[in-house]
Amino acid sequence: MAEYENVLEVDVREDLRLKKEPFDKIMTAVKSLKPGQTLELHAPFNPVPLHSVLKRRGFTHEAEKLERKHWKVIYRKKEDEINEHN
Fold first, then answer.
1. Which pLDDT band holds residue 78 (cuts at 50, 70, 90)?
2. Is the pLDDT of residue 1 over 80?
3. C-beta separation of 50 from 20 below 8 A
4. What is d(CA 31, CA 53) in angstroms, rounded to the nearest whole number?
5. Statement: residue 20 has pLDDT above 90
6. Distance of CA 56 to the CA centre of its chain
7. How many Å apart are CA 85 and CA 23, to the nearest integer?
8. What is the pLDDT of residues 36-58, one digit of tens each?
């Protein structure tokens, strides 16, 4: 995990390559987010089921395919987006 000013970056590509389930790692990162901070997830595929889980927790997402086996997904708390526009 790498942390920048307003971004917490989590890369689970290696975990999945080693057949390690990354869900707990991702959820630990989600719980550690500070107000206004976004989660930047790097995965080998678009993690559609995770989008639903985090949507129920109040997150929106933007997914982008960077390479054949590299997706970047940005998750933001909905209230953080509202605050940015005020």
1. confident
2. no
3. no
4. 13
5. yes
6. 14
7. 31
8. 999 999 999 999 999 999 999 99
Which has the closest alpha carbon to 30: 64, 75, 79, 73? Answer: 75
SS (H, E, C) 5-40: CCEEEEECHHHHHCCCCCHHHHHHHHHHCCCCCEEE
Neighbours of 53 (CB within 10 A): 14
Biggest alpha carbon distance in the chain? 44
Residue type, 44: P
Residue 79 is predicted with a pLDDT of 74
66 contact partners, CB below 8 Å, separation of at least 6: 72
